[in-house]
Amino acid sequence: MPFELTILGSSSATPTQNRHPTAQVLNIRERFFLIDCGEGTQSQLVRYKIKYSRIGHIFISHLHGDHYLGLMGLLSTMHLQGRNNEIHIYGQQELMDIIELQLRLSQTVLRYNLIFHPVKNYSGTIILEDEDLSVSTISLNHRIPCTGFLFKEKPKPRKLLINKMKQYNIPFKYYAGIKNGENYEDDFGNIIPNKELTISAGRPRSYAFCSDTVYLEHLADEVRGVDLLYHESTFMHDLLDRAKATFHSTSIEAATVAKNAGVQRLVIGHFSARYKDLAPMLEEARTIFPESELALEGRKFVVHEQN
Amino acid sequence: MPFELTILGSSSATPTQNRHPTAQVLNIRERFFLIDCGEGTQSQLVRYKIKYSRIGHIFISHLHGDHYLGLMGLLSTMHLQGRNNEIHIYGQQELMDIIELQLRLSQTVLRYNLIFHPVKNYSGTIILEDEDLSVSTISLNHRIPCTGFLFKEKPKPRKLLINKMKQYNIPFKYYAGIKNGENYEDDFGNIIPNKELTISAGRPRSYAFCSDTVYLEHLADEVRGVDLLYHESTFMHDLLDRAKATFHSTSIEAATVAKNAGVQRLVIGHFSARYKDLAPMLEEARTIFPESELALEGRKFVVHEQN
Fold it and tell me: Is residue B210 part of a domain?
């Protein structure tokens, strides 16, 4: 089952001819989560063939325009295309004020239910949880309140070894319990341990999205061991002062968080328009954390199932 | 001196892969006017090499998202790029509420002066006038208040015929008056008529932008004789009922306005996403008004100086 991140935008606030403001789509087990929604996100979704109708949840990190100005257009197009399914939006409470004002002035009554979930800038608050996954907040430190998001798969039921089911003649009614890790006791009182009957369906996968922020040493604790970490990297490290002044991070800082957190892979993005060539940015990050990649438009980062 | 319209967007509310929502730039004598500002306008400006810094005035016809959702991003980029020059925005009063809310929530204090000019949906109100041109309103009829804009060059001073100036030995101090149409009286009381001393510098050129509207018979009177008329044409004429229901126009209706108004050229746009091929749309308009053209992205419509 997929766990795949698609990058729709890599630029910081000033877009360039080839870079778009922040937006990403995370596909967890064929459920699609849109993370930030900069201007032009709907066009980027069309370009990368992700149907609007598949997106059920939208997460907005903060209210700087390059992270949300594509939202009204997307909501409007979903409406015009006749969407019926409800949509869930997660963001600062004031985002709903912006949405409501614009809907009211355009005299639009959405055809679908828009369910708004206000997000506060604390860490570790679970804002979405179901049988597949949980999403919790990561408190960041930017010029205005800004929240990252940690996506974690739920552990999946173990896979039954069908030949063992037959060998021990295990009735079907025990299958669900065995999938959940129970041992099996046969008619003679013999215990067959679960690990002889099943294999792991893969350990839960995880993705942490750390939008605009200054370098935070404690962030490593919050994203420890994730499979995939996105951390902004607006500047190269020679502009550390500029990064601090604007509440952004450098490539070295992003890579330091990745290294300290022991993540599997780092994706850096939110690049300043001043960098035409991003190779030096990537090279710099890799001096600290070799498994670094650039969040370029259209790139997909797949986290494979692992046993 | 140029009088040139550049199309940045041709689509109606749902954008397609190749079409962008409404936005146009009108260059009158090297002054740049942005008319409507759909999502992605800043990228389109970059694509067609029109510098943000040259735009001094922005006109927004109405508060449907496909006509203004690119505005906040553009204003923000102008700010980030260090703009100092003031900018004038013309639109419904509530547009300023949207701008103010978003600036406040992003804690942005613009580096430049934003001067907002509220526009009411009456016809014939002059909202901008100076030595080069005037802009007045055109009342349209859409689902929400919607205003078109009529741009008219001011008459230019007549051009002096320098050989005649010499022939009659006319002192320099009379030149300004003669440019403004005065005759010349020499020392012997002879009257030299102005038309012997000057030629016309070209008649004033004009452009009418008629954004979203149902067909309005009286509109022909308001845009009579303009050099260039933009009129929306969301649908072909077989969908007249749909056009009426959604307060839009068909190609036949747009062409009828152009014909009745005796304009020089018609540009149709705001095409429904259902039309992949626009040739039949254009053909249909041309059955009524042969000088019709499509408002395709990147197309320029030049009005030449005419004597």
Answer: yes
d(CA B251, CA B90): 28
CB of A144 less than 8 A from some CB of B: yes
Task: Assess if residue B307 is contained within a domain.
Answer: no
On whether any CB of chain B is under 8 Å from the CB of A80, the answer is yes
| Residues B213 and B269 grouped into a single domain | yes
Q: Does A103 touch chain B (CB under 8 A)?
A: no
For the whole model, what pTM was predicted? 0.90
Rounded Cα gap, residues B37 and B64, in angstroms: 11
B210 CA: distance to closest CA in chain A (Å): 18
Does A97 participate in catalysis according to the annotation? no
The answer as to whether B24 is a domain residue is yes
Identify any residues that bridge with A7 across adjacent strands, giving them in sequence order: A24
Domain that holds residue A164: 159-198
pLDDT tens figures, A166-215: 999 999 999 999 999 999 998 889 999 999 999 988 889 999 999 999 99
- Residue A104 distance to chain B (closest CA, Å): 10
Number of domains in chain B: 2
Q: Tell me whether 0.90 is exceeded by the ipTM.
A: no
Q: DSSP string spanning A134-145?
A: EEEEEE---SS-
Q: How far apart are CA B115 and CA B130, in angstroms?
A: 16
| CATH classification at residue A36 | 3.60.15.10
If asked whether residues B283 and B173 sit together in one domain, one would say no
* Whether B107 and A73 lie within 8 Å, measured CB to CB: no
